[in-house]
Amino acid sequence: MKLFIKKIFILGFLLILAMMGLNYLGVKAGKIYKDGAALVCETKRNMVRSGAIHYDKDKINVLFMGTSRILAGIAPAVFDELSGGRTLSYNLALPALPISSSYFVLRDYLKKNPPPGWIIMQLHINQCRTCTLFNYYSHQGLISLAEIFSLFTEVQDKKIALNYIFPFRMYAFFTVQYLYNRIFHPGRIRESQDNNRAILSRMMEERGYYFIEEQAVSSDNRLPDDFGEMEKTSAAPQQGVEYDPFIDPYVEKFFDLTRENGINVLLVQPVYRQNQGSQYEKIPLQFDMILKEYNHVFLAKQGWKLRRYENRFFSDRTHLNKDGARQFTREIYREFCEVFPAVASPGSSCKS
Asked: pTM of the entire structure?
């Protein structure tokens, strides 16, 4: 009996070592082969925690939050230029992630900085239709046990906890690719690392804005006019469908946190392609409920309507190209001016 227990103990110990080794290789491989959005997500979170993304006491500090539609949609340099240099803005949007991630990022930001004056954000809650992207992207830069416990208890799909404990689950394919290239094509690893550094350098230089060029459909980064004529469009919650925002507990957590810290919030709609989804006929329930509950949350007069751009402003079926981002940023700045007219100084361009 003692011999049997000893064998079981040894076997368990070896399995733990094997899993630790696989997890180590998985994370190492993931850092090389993650897509650009995942790299940006992880780097932003680490920069916020380190204080690299910081407050400027001489400026109106503005943070942009939301999903990849905001990540690739609002360019801080354009926004600040329109303000005549009175604002300092940073794009803290994270790819594919709902408001829970914005909540945790804002908590980290406030540990290092005074509260920003404004947050301009897309309201994207977690209804967990599939949770696939959430379970992957939410781990990028996540290092807090308290955060993973909070997500595990509040989010319906529990795969996020398994991915946190066993990251090899997410990076299995990358691990095989890494081992193969490590042996036979080490130059490919260096090439990937150089490409990653270039992506992150551009993102940091543009203060969090990230044009998702690797997903572009054509070489000129413009979606063809006839793209998607026969494409089936999905009825995402933001596309003309009303819902109770408080079904996601992090909606209340986020807006309570902003209220406690005296942060004004401007809700905005992202951009969709023409003929994609149905338009709201009146202010949607999700915006209306939040505006009634929180007097520090604002909306431009027509800010609840879905925006429609031609295909030429998109690089893929979802994300704006740089021309689209500049146009969208100008629209968001005009809404910001409408709600916060003090910005409309002689040096600003609220009517541009």
From this structure: 0.92
